Amino acid sequence: MSEQLKTATPEPATTRTDAKDTEVGSVFVSNYPPYSFWGKDDVPAVTNALNSPPTPDATLGLYLHIPFCRKRCKFCYFRVYTDKNSSDIQLYLDALGTEVELYSELPSVADRPLKFVYFGGGTPSYISSKHLKALVKRIKAAIPWDSAEEVAFECEPGTLTQGKLESIKEIGVTRLSLGVENLNDTILAENGRAHLSKEVYRVTPWIAELQFDQVNMDLIAGMVGETWDSWRDTVQRTIDLDPDSITVYQMELPFNTVYSKDIFGGKDLFVADWKTKREWHHYAFEQLAAAGYKMSSAYTMVKQDKPGQFIYRDAVWRGSDMLGTGVASFSHMSGIHFQNATSWDDYVNSLHKHQLPLDRAFPTTPAERLTREMILQLKLGRIETAYFREKFNADIVEVFGSTYQKLQDEGMLTFDKDAVTLTRKGLLRVDGLLPEFYAPKYRNARYT
After folding, report:
1. pLDDT of 7
2. Each residue of 181-219: b (16+ CB within 10 Å) or e?
3. From CA 399, how far away is CA 260, in angstroms rounded?
4. Which of 16, 51, 98, 333 could crosslink 351 through cysteines, CB 3.0-4.6 Å?
5. In whole angstroms, how far apart are CA 247 and each of 38, 180, 298?
6. pLDDT digits (tens, 9 = 90+) for 163-177
7. Within 13 A of 198's CA, how many CA atoms are on the CB side?
8. Are 42 and 363 spatial neighbours (Cβ–Cβ below 8 Å)?
9. How confident is the model at residue 10 (pLDDT cuts 50, 70, 90)?
10. What are the percentages of helix, strand and coil residues in the chain, rounded to 5?
11. Is 425 left (phi over 0), alpha (psi -120 to 50) or beta?
């Protein structure tokens, strides 16, 4: 299969290119091996795993995909819908509830406590309070989450009302993540965001009043139209909003975004180059450190006086089982990766028949699981060799030593027998470094 997936030109997502410009095909690395190697032939392995006892000591999380948005951002590559009415939403949420109920009856899931719950999208805050409460009531009846360490919820500022925020708090959300992205209205409009900055300022007092355990705000360095002046202003204004954590992503151009299609169509579109985006990212982290934040990962800074946990991220990057529910969602169970049906009709119709909407899968080897955890945890900035010895009975310095040495010679990291630590230079380009660790058959292939 890997030969069929090779591309004629280097893939920025699976090959170390060190390109200057932001290339179409660049992505935030979220999994290994690449998604393009998953296939329908391996779906029976998923069924076998789901009908078997879980891997001993593995934690379990639940991801709920709410795929509705007011508008589609021009840089978005997720499965989202902007044309669904209330009855469509109810139809989808009914299917989502059925999916969770089907999972709850399987040996791999039954009676296992949830470590985390994550409402992602799309825009979870798009749906009404009535829809949200009914969905949660049904899901918690199937898989209770009162003991979960974290319930995370993504929000788009313009979809929030005071009443909806109260409903979000009522269902047990502990980590609220607000998709701010930028605080310049011209830039927000150019990039297709549904909200404007006034909506951020409208909702933040309500959020503060409800005292969520953790409030995160997302920013994107390098949105189309960004300048040094606008970026400095956005960073300072976000600090002034005083969230518990701030996550800074660098603008990517996956293949299926509006912007990527525009570029392929010959449109002259200026996207900041990697050097500039790294400088903006670095600037934001410097300002956040001066304001009392400390690094939690290559992307996130947290207040020094707050716990700053992100259970979902840390659990997934440490190989937790996760049920990814909803259209096109990704799951990881007992060493097998799998994805749901990617079309609305296929997803809803499967669950109408009380069948799990499984579409493609990939059973991983122990070596692939080791590589996956190692590269994902590198994004935290530092990994301890003892963790991998205990979990995998592997010495990562021995397994990956030549690549560590190469990256150390380039000033990207330092390593010894106890730990591997990214330098600031390495942190700012970590996703571009990770293909160095890919097995040869997974390089220069489509990521998705």
Report:
1. 54
2. bbbbeebbeebbbbbbbebbebbbeebeebebebbbbbb
3. 37
4. 98
5. 30, 10, 9
6. 999 999 999 999 999
7. 2
8. yes
9. low
10. 40, 20, 40
11. alpha
Judged by average pLDDT, the poorest of 70-74, 319-323, 431-435 is 70-74
* CA dist., res. 378 & res. 65, Å (int): 26
The secondary structure of residue 364, as a DSSP letter, is: P
Among candidates 269, 208, 217, which has minimal Cα distance to 247? 217
Domains, the chain, in order of start with CATH, read: 1-14+366-448 (1.10.10.920)
Q: Return the percentage of the chain with pLDDT > 70, whole number.
A: 98
Give 81's DSSP letter.
B
How far is Cα 340 from Cα 213, in angstroms, rounded to an integer?
32
Which residues on neighbouring strands pair with residue 216, listed in sequence order? Answer: 177, 245
**78-124 pLDDT, tens per residue?**
889 999 999 999 999 999 999 999 999 999 999 999 999 999 999 99
Query: What average pLDDT does the chain have?
Result: 94
CA 246 – CA 182 distance, rounded (Å)? 12
The pLDDT score that the predictor gives to residue 6 is 53
**80 half-sphere exposure, CB direction, 13 A CA radius:** 21
Tell me if 155 sits within 8 A of 178, measured CB to CB: yes
Specify the DSSP class assigned to residue 293. E
Radius of gyration in angstroms for the set of CA atoms belonging to the chain, rounded to a whole number: 21
- List Cβ neighbours of 145 (8 Å cut-off, separation of 6 or more): 62, 114, 117, 151, 172
DSSP helix/strand/coil, 424: helix
Residue whose pair of structure tokens reads 């409208």 in the numeric block? 202
Does the structure show a pLDDT above 50 at 435?
yes
Strand order in the sheet with 382-384: 382-384, 419-422, 413-415
